[in-house]
Write a structure and sequence with these properties.
63 residues, mainly alpha, 3 helices
Length: 63
């Protein structure tokens, strides 16, 4: 899912900050990665994918 998400973002020309790129690489939760991928399908900016709800995701929730 991670590879698919990053490929989709690249295809759409959406560039992630290093912090968000690190977050994508560190996240192990398939549900979170799937949610981001689904959002990316319609997003025109990275902010539409990584909303404030993600601020509550901790490293433990990414494990």
């Amino acid at each position: 899912m991670r590879t698919s998400l990053l490929a989709l973002l690249d295809h759409k020309g959406l560039t992630l900050t290093q912090a968000r790129l690190d977050l994508v690489h560190e996240t192990q939760d398939l549900g979170i990665l799937t949610r981001w991928h689904t959002r990316a399908l319609r997003a025109t900016t990275p902010d539409e994918i990584f909303t404030s709800e993600n601020a509550t995701e901790t490293p433990a929730s990414r494990a």
